Amino acid sequence: MAFRRWVLALVVLAGACGDEPRRRPPVGGDGGVDAGAALRDASFPDVPPVDGGVCMDAVDVVFVLDVSSSMNFVLEELEDDVQQVVDAATALAPDPHFGFLGFVDNHAFAANGSLEGGRVHTSAATLQAAFREFLSTYTSPNRNPGDGPSGPTTQNPICEENALDAIHAAATEFPWRESATRVIIVATDDTFLIAPDNYGDRDGDGDWTSTDFPREGNYPARRGYAETVTAVQEARARVFAFTRLTAPDVFSRCGTGRRLGWSQITEGWSAPYQGAEPIPSATDGQNFDLAAVQAGRLSLAATINEVVVESYCQPPLF
Ligand SMILES: [Ca+2]
Ligand SMILES: [Ca+2]
Ligand SMILES: [Ca+2]
Hints:
By secondary structure, the protein is of the alpha/beta class. The chain is 31% helix and 12% strand.
């Protein structure tokens, strides 16, 4: 991504500077190359300094987190460390906005934020409260967030989780600000299904009414793959994901059946989904190793801070 940004900066400088007054030079990680200075000093003396149009983007970050029972460590780590994420975003631009959607086989926005009917969080405190609330209300009793706090428990009859509908909702239902750098952070340890499959139909026989364990329920996949990628692109957002790069060993696996093979859990994240480019790379984002997070080798907060800084004022390339 860094190389493409460097090239982009050159193209912008050499071409239509007047059309892009708000773009700024690459941020960090680019070896300190000051393409703007080189061009200004040498062959393009009339090119206005790129710093003359200072990027004034706000920062909007939405967490789209799998809150099924294997994912408590992500919610707990973010509860501990999200203040660092808020502080780093605030250092980039004042008044960052955050959102949080939790998903299992359906999803819901945390609605305890301070703006926009609760969907927008402006402090770590309300995010921490939301992570804690989702842990106790949805993760522990295996309840689907879209069913609300009094929905049925002991749901989730197959391992795949509905990230796709949640990402689509983040892209289309979060109140993104017009001039904001937009980042979606996903964490999940499995892949997803696409419409018209049903997450509540454990054996894929078209019926979702069996009540013996693992209990069935009606949890249709509502979105397709291409339309979800398109929704993120149209929102001008990037997806950065934390997912498993390999299947877990047999002792660490989801305890129910599954629709797709264990080798397919990378699909859509670090591997193509039915031949289509994975969501993070299709949205100019990146995928990271969730197992490294779980093992304590990769910090969620530090990684999120890096990708937000790297994204800031850099229009996504897609
Ligand atoms: Ca799960
Ligand atoms: Ca599931
Ligand atoms: Ca069935």
